[in-house]
Amino acid sequence: MSVTVVLGSQWGDEGKGKLVDILAASVDLCARCAGGNNAGHTIVVKDKGVKKTYAFHLLPSGLVNPACTGLIGSGLVVHIPSFFKELDALQEQGLDCTGRLFISDRAHLVFDFHQIVDGLKEVELGGSSIGTTKKGIGPAYSGKASRSGLRVHHLFDHENFAQKFRKLVEGRFKRYGHFEYDTEGEIVRYKQLAERLRPYVVDSVVFIHNAIASNKKVLVEGANALMLDLDFGTYPYVTSSSTTIGGVCTGLGIPPKLIGEVIGVVKAYTTRVGGGPFPTEQLDDIGVHLQEVGHEYGTTTGRRRRCGWLDLVVLKHSCLINGYDSLNLTKLDILDQLADIKIAVQYKVDGKELPGFPADLEVLSKVEVVYEILPGWKSSIENITSYSDLPDNCKKYINFIESFTKVPVKWIGVGPGRESMIMKS
Ligand code: 2SA
Ligand code: GDP
Ligand code: MG
């Protein structure tokens, strides 16, 4: 039995959550492997004819399916108050997750002081700030890498936890000066939170391997995306986790041989939220059109997302690293009104083609982007349900992506709702 994986292929917000929700209808377990509540996955469903929108940040989106169990793997960094806030919000929307949500005892903890430090670091960076979500992700992963972090299991040895926690806060005061923080109050709060968290905590290695051994269908939901990966993204304008296929193995403790289908989610254009390079960004009417028609606002922070043309140099880089078996092209409907559609196919520096996506941002700043221009279809595809009914120019756009990447497009998103997904055989 193998594990299916859904990963973001660009700078995030490709629409991973929607595909995960659709696939979750036929899986038993949906697991997150990396990141934290910086992620934002929006799911739009019709419940007895009424439209419902769910926003997931830390919890796996597969939970919308009431028969699906959710697992927060060891590769995540978890802010426990936010975990409960999200859980309570889902409960209020009528989604009961009782008994079907679990969290790894090895997951690292994000505290409020990490979030404060996240903000202070951004201020220090000034004009070259990363544009983080300020959820404390970078500082928590830094603590993990420097081997001083606290993990979920530490919550259950209160004295030891309190001692280590005080030391961590002191360290931050030394580095950033004394900021307002109720250390002792936090220690008391976490004693209570630990008791509330206890029923959710599992050894996630045993948990996921038991599920696989008993032939349960497992789906992994990637968070953030390839170009935000700590190693292969536009460093340092990245998040602090492994957002690639490698992060699936390290964040869940599963070997590569158990990985089955890997699906790359590709937005039909490109967006990025936060700072950092974006070669196909359009700072003109086209960018505004994509932003407005595509409702491109951060699901977690509400920030405006930067917009531009589809970049196949990025997608190729992404395909090489993640080895997608198939692609889900999303938000194709957002291109409906355009007369011409550009696709980036090559980067050149001083007239010479680059062999791949450059590591050095200095080089990246000098690239000349080479575009192909394809004719638009100038009609609404929102209500189309079968591939054969798509306009010819729309099919040409899809075929262009397939022949460039040599990866088949299996799903095509034509609207935000669950039903707006065309299966291409
Ligand atoms: P962080 O907070 O340390 O992970 O930020 C580092 C960079 O990673 C970017 N990042 C994201 N990019 C796209 N979507 C994300 N999730 C939210 C969403 C974002 C939001 O779904 O819209 O609401 O703003 C996400 N999370 C992190 C971030 O912008 C930095 O560039
Ligand atoms: P994720 O982070 O990759 O899960 O993506 P987000 O949920 O942050 O952002 C994607 C947004 O696009 C959400 O608001 C989705 O409801 C919406 N969406 C997903 N697929 C489609 C699509 O095919 N068409 C349209 N119009 N919207 C879509
Ligand atoms: Mg998102």
Automatic annotation (TrEMBL):
Function of the molecule: Plays an important role in the de novo pathway and in the salvage pathway of purine nucleotide biosynthesis. Catalyzes the first commited step in the biosynthesis of AMP from IMP. Plays an important role in the de novo pathway and in the salvage pathway of purine nucleotide biosynthesis. Catalyzes the first committed step in the biosynthesis of AMP from IMP.
This protein's record includes keyword Translocase: no
InterPro entries xref list: Adenylosuccin_syn_GTP-bd, Adenylosuccin_syn_Lys_AS, Adenylosuccinate_synth_dom1, Adenylosuccinate_synth_dom2, Adenylosuccinate_synth_dom3, Adenylosuccinate_synthetase, P-loop_NTPase
This protein's UniProt keywords: Cytoplasm, GTP-binding, Ligase, Magnesium, Metal-binding, Nucleotide-binding, Purine biosynthesis
Gene Ontology BP terms: 'de novo' AMP biosynthetic process; IMP metabolic process
A Pfam match: Adenylsucc_synt
HAMAP family: Adenylosucc_synth
GO MF term list: adenylosuccinate synthase activity; GTP binding; magnesium ion binding
Documented EC number(s): 6.3.4.4
Assembly description: Homodimer.
Active-site residues, as the UniProt record annotates them: 13, 41, 144
Residues where IMP binds: 13-16, 38-41, 133, 147, 224, 239, 303
UniProt enzyme class: ligase
Keyword Transmembrane helix: no
UniProt-listed NCBIfam families: PRK01117.1, purA
Stated name of the protein: Adenylosuccinate synthetase
Cofactor(s) needed: Mg(2+)
Details of cofactor binding: Binds 1 Mg(2+) ion per subunit.
Family: Belongs to the adenylosuccinate synthetase family.
Binding positions (Mg(2+)): 13, 40
Catalytic reactions of this protein: IMP + L-aspartate + GTP = N(6)-(1,2-dicarboxyethyl)-AMP + GDP + phosphate + 2 H(+)
GO cellular component: cytoplasm
Record-listed substrate binding positions: 299-305
